[in-house]
């Protein structure tokens, strides 16, 4: 059974002024998140992804549909029962949301105090968590004395304090530099792998999904327009919006303007080879072209790796006898996708 299940869920808000239509933030979303997943939900600003998070952690009621979290249907519960459900869901935020007047230790202890833990148990749990996130030496520091990455580590420790089964990360790395983002994502991987916490990552950054997520849902205008394993969505996106997102981190077939530049700069037939896990390797393609007596150079594209599975697109400028090129492409095309994007040589 999924740990989070949404069935035909919609969330609408009243119009802001007379005569305007109501705002549909989430539109008939059906989505299952399995225990142990790192599930990415991605979309441009206004896509509805942050509203979806607020529905999962019961901060907003759904207008219609059902939401089940850890076996409990949220749509049937009163506020007291919803508070108990929220206790099993941790949350980290883009702007950290730490108490500036409390030390690191006190920030992490805060949810435990609210939950009624004893002082010895709070002390032991906070010590354990600060060690886990690598901040044991910052226990007495205040948030203003920390870097952005350290603040987010405190946020993660605080979110894990009550041992939640689910962790929601809403744009948790958007305020961080690339190196710090990498460190925080590595920590979230450890949270998932070592503590067994299911993580839902809300982001507009495709490279975050590529780095950490196992599954992904793409949202646009309140709807989920594509979902699946990250590798499948990245290597063969079906929806135009998904293709735009993937294009931010994966170079595919050159656009018409890029092709025009390539034709000016490179002689030969321009051919794109598309690789997917299990296909012939790029090295084998190069060997086949060389064995056919052809000259070639890599002019566009790259190969990506997601959890040990490779995919990508390489565009080559191939020079040599035209019939030899035809024969080589026919042979290679039996193993990988081949797209001739410019048959004539640049002048």
TrEMBL record:
Q: Which Gene3D superfamilies match?
A: 3.30.70.260, P-loop containing nucleotide triphosphate hydrolases
Write one Gene Ontology MF term. Answer: ATP binding
Tell me where in this chain the ABC transporter domain is found.
4-246
Query: What name appears for this protein in its UniProt entry?
Result: Methionine ABC transporter ATP-binding protein
Against SUPFAM superfamilies, the record matches this protein to:
ACT-like, P-loop containing nucleoside triphosphate hydrolases
Leader peptide range in chain numbering? none
Q: Which UniProt keywords apply?
A: Amino-acid transport, ATP-binding, Cell membrane, Membrane, Nucleotide-binding, Translocase, Transport
**Which SMART domains does this one have?**
AAA (SM00382), NIL (SM00930)
Instruction: Spell out the PANTHER family in the cross-references.
Output: AMINO ACID IMPORT ATP-BINDING PROTEIN, METHIONINE IMPORT ATP-BINDING PROTEIN METN
Coiled-coil features, chain-numbered ranges: none
